[in-house]
Amino acid sequence: MSFFVAQNIIKNYAGHRALDDVSIEIPQGAVYGLLGPNGAGKTSLIRIITQITGPDSGKLFFKGRPLVPEDMNRIGYLPEERGLYKKMKVGEQAVYLARLKGMSRRDAIRQLKAWFEKFGIQEWWERKVEELSKGMAQKVQFITTVLHEPEMLIFDEPFSGFDPINVELLKKEILALREKGTTIIFSTHNMASVEEICSHIALINKSRKIIEGPINQIRNKYANNTYRLICKPVTGMEFRQLVGPEYEILSDKSEDGLHEVVLQCLEDCPANALLRRLLDDAEVISYQQIIPGMNDIFIKLVKEGNIILNE
Hints:
This protein is about 30% helix and about 30% strand. By secondary structure, it is α/β, with parallel strands linked by helices. It has two domains: about 5-85 and about 130-220, Rossmann fold; about 225-290. It has a six-stranded mixed sheet with strand order 6-7-8-3-9-10, sandwiched between helices. A four-stranded antiparallel sheet has the order 2-1-4-5, covered by helices on one side. Helix 2 crosses helix 3 (about 105-120) and helix 2 packs parallel to helix 4 (about 135-145). The longest helix has 16 residues, at about 165-180. The chain starts with a strand and ends in a 7-residue tail after the last helix.
């Protein structure tokens, strides 16, 4: 049974179809990347999941039953837009948001102090929110989103406004939440940033889902028998002769006697077939299959018009 399901969601705004029969299934404990370019429909789907808006048609299920308003206390949502009251003090604002999620003032202050120290913003407790930078405001919102330990977390472009050091800090905390069993939806247009933390993904383009599934399974599916080889020929044979006609050489860089070659197997052959062929005539330094990234897969699917539903 999936932890969260959105089923056949349709949403229109003033004649524009923001979501066109979109369905997703999120396993429990997954870090689920909701990927696609700006304007694809990701935020529209998130606003429906968090019940900020409703779908024109379609259904939502949480833990095997229809989603109800009371479930929002079990879901944490970090929007891309900043939602803090500028004139309030930072600590006061954080405590207020924690109380809205049902925490006692005492527990909220204790846990907030620990999180503020972890994120290096403890000295801002008594400062006003309007004095925060974009990145620091995002840190405060991240803390208040995860503080009450919801069963599901939704992050919409969580790395927006962060420098590389703080991006790594946030990734570390998201991975820690995953280890605790929290189910996470991670929405972004930056596909490369999620490959190291997402277990599952859905790609959305022009209001429609084009592919969904475990990320490693999808990447392996779109691998096209392409390999990167670094070797040193030890006989006088030309490299073209070494690899044979069933391989197309896509690139070949030679320096100091070493060949760095990208080649594609044109036939259905085992990955180690080339290694067996080379061992007598070349010293193999490294050999690996090239697995495409999600950005490459997305571009390929869009260019080919390969709309794949219900993977």
